[in-house]
Amino acid sequence: MALVSVVTATYAGDDPAHLAEALDSVAAQTHRPLQLLVAADGDLTPAAERLLADRCSRHAWIEVHRLAGPAGPAAARNAVLPLCRGEFVAVLDADDAMQPDRLEVQLDFLAQHPEVDLVASWLAVTDDRGSALETRRFPESWQDVRARSAFFCPTANTAMLMRSRVLPMFRYPTDLRVGEDYRLWVSLMRAGARIANVPRPLTRYRTGPGYFERRRGYRYAVSDLVTKILALPLAPWWQAPVVLVIAGATFVVRLLPASWFRGAYAAFERVTRG
User: Is the pLDDT of residue 205 over 80?
Assistant: First the structure.
């Protein structure tokens, strides 16, 4: 069976309990063999260090790579990507968790769709304590992912699985601390890569108290606006005026005061995602 390399970046601000859930969800995968590369972005807490030592003692296929950081999640993931030995490479954020059959389902999808280079999935969104909130859906076919990418981020970083042939051009932009994954998807598709989503929530995506706050502000607004403009060639030409209106409106929404942003952002997401 194909070796799958999984990349997870963590830093001192991550909750060790959430990190444990992420690592254990990889260990619980129905697919074998695995390689899990944990990028430790700077010094970790004693609790996180104990956790990693324990999981490495249990599973010889877990590797911890220590970085001088903190340099941010983009740089941390980039640092370990060249160490992936797998025929396929998956990404999982340190506060999320895979469903037990995630990798098996995604590998089956890629086997049935040889034209697709990367596949993610829908998300099972939870609150900080892990209680279910909603299912976040994304476009399914690579054609729809491409066409919708100028309107919103059309796939989820924490749910991604790629063929190793994508690795040479799979690098997160390190100049961005927010929206780096969205920018990467657009760059890959502009280079000809095809991205699809399995229409099932194969990853549990945790939101916390800072979820909405991280998505507002000038830096995020500028990053998102630039990414949408870069994605314009991916959308049908006749949708360009609509894309520009959406991009401008999204920019304004991200600059709203925190007390207004949450409701406006949620409503805007419903409208743009259809």
Answer: yes
d(CA 253, CA 264): 7
pLDDT at 117 over 80: yes
**Structure confidence at residue 271 (pLDDT):** 61
Instruction: Check whether residue 167 and residue 266 sit in a common domain.
Output: no
Within this chain, do residues 226 and 199 fall inside the same structural domain, yes or no?
no
What is the extent of the structural domain holding 254? 215-273
Domain's final residue, options 209, 239, 257: 209
pLDDT at 262: 75
Same domain, 134 and 118: yes
Distance between CA atoms of 135 and 244, rounded to whole angstroms?
28
d(CA 158, CA 32): 20
User: What is the rounded average pLDDT of the residues 212-230?
Assistant: 87
- Residues 133, 18: one domain? yes
Tell me the whole-structure pTM to 2 decimals.
0.93
Average pLDDT over residues 88-115: 98
pLDDT attached to residue 136: 94
